[in-house]
Amino acid sequence: MSLFDLSAKNYSEFADTQEAYIFGLFSDKGIPEDFKKAHPNLSEQITLALDNGEFKAKTNQTIVLYTPKCTTAKRYIVVGLGESKKYTSDMLRQAAASGAKQILNLKIGRFAIEFMGEDELGVEDAQALAEGLVMGSYQFLNYKKSEDEYAGIESAIVLSKSDISRALAYGMSISAGVVLARDLGNHPSNVATPTFLADTAESIAKTGGMKVTIYNREDFEKLGLGGIQGVAQGSDVPPKFIILEYSGGGKGAKTLGLVGKGLTFDSGGISIKPSAGMDEMKFDMLGGAAVLGIMSIVAKIKPKLNIIAVVPSTENMNGGEAYKPGDILTAYNGKTIEILNTDAEGRLILADGLAYISQNFELDGLVNFATLTGAVVVALGHRYSGMMTNDQDFGNQLIAYGEKSQDRVWQMPLDDEYAEDIKSKIADVKNTGNAREAGTIAAGAFLREFVKEGTPWCHVDIAGSGWLKKGRSYLPEGPTGAGVRLIMELIKDWA
Known about the structure:
Blueprint: E1 5-7, E2 21-25, H1 33-38, H2 40-51, E3 62-65, E4 76-80, H3 89-105, E5 110-114, H4 126-136, E6 155-159, H5 165-186, H6 194-208, E7 211-215, H7 217-223, H8 226-232, E8 240-247, E9 255-260, E10 262-266, H9 286-301, E11 306-316, E12 328-330, E13 336-338, H10 346-360, E14 365-370, H11 375-380, E15 385-389, H12 392-405, E16 409-411, E17 429-430, H13 439-448, E18 457-461, E19 467-468, E20 478-479, H14 484-494
Parallel strand pairs: 1-6, 2-4, 2-5, 5-6, 9-11, 9-14, 10-11, 13-17, 14-18, 15-16
Antiparallel strand pairs: 3-4, 7-8, 8-11, 12-13, 15-18, 19-20
């Protein structure tokens, strides 16, 4: 999906070219008097719809209206904003997404939109409007042949009482990173291979002046990357261990570490998954996609911060060389891992990623993203990411960033007692906990074993939030880009 032109301009100069005009209406305020004076005929239509109960201005409710002999726009789209006292920047994000969906339904190319609910918000909240428009209009049509001549949204003009240009531009940058993460997840696994992710990383590095290092299968044994080496054994597709280094802060600036699981297809290995739904296992690289989405934004906005990103990437297949239940692997930090289930592979490649980044770089904070456990979906559904931490202050920061961005995390416990569940009799740890008990937390306890002591770390499980079977608001069916906006709030604050 390509981004469209979004700008705040003098609407009167472009009014005759706009195919639609989007504005919002609060359910508890009615139609503003100045609007009634400027648009009497339109106001009558809205009043009739309100009186008939067909439109109540509830949150995200929309109605399309037409007024003859009107030079402002060919059609009007009214978006319900709900109660004014409950209005937030995320509700603006949702309202913009609702408007964008109507634009797509009507196959409109150019439109104007108000900074809806502007009096209730601040100038910086226009960022949410841009995000809502882009994320709400997202479509992945790369492999779909269509005879429809509709080319999608071309441009949008935003009307505001204030100068919101910077906020809109920043929101577009954030949205571009979310779009990249979604696109990477939507590509099939025969396209989005580890090599494809590595090529994406190299392109990002070139744009942002970053250092990029790509380790290949032949490097793994020499470096001691036994986790990814073991998982990759069953696949003929070349695995990659991807490292991006951004030095925008210089000496003395904070350094953030990011690790994303890049499992481009997960058959389960010898502990094979059921065939039903296995096509969804192309989404098992969404942690890596989120990290690459974040770094693509960093490449553009260039924050005064140092960021190290690692994406271990491979398939998990059951070929003749595949690792087996009962095998023992040795991770980058020297800890041995007893394999009880080859379908608990994501934590193995993350073990190498976390050990590598925390031992080779001094980090002020480290966050990893992974579609790691089905148990987190049982616990939290699809609205929050599960989060565990070894540093409560850092964890509290991430929770706050999640609330601000509405890319939310919910903390789960990680007491030392849970480490007992992953102890092995013949190795340092085993790669599963107790059957049907605290599966998400056991995975977090496992990962903690590979983070260098003293490194503030948060593990974020996006198995539920990372992709949806039924979309909502600005989150589509399929990959959502979970984690991107969360970390961009952290980066904005730290920089």
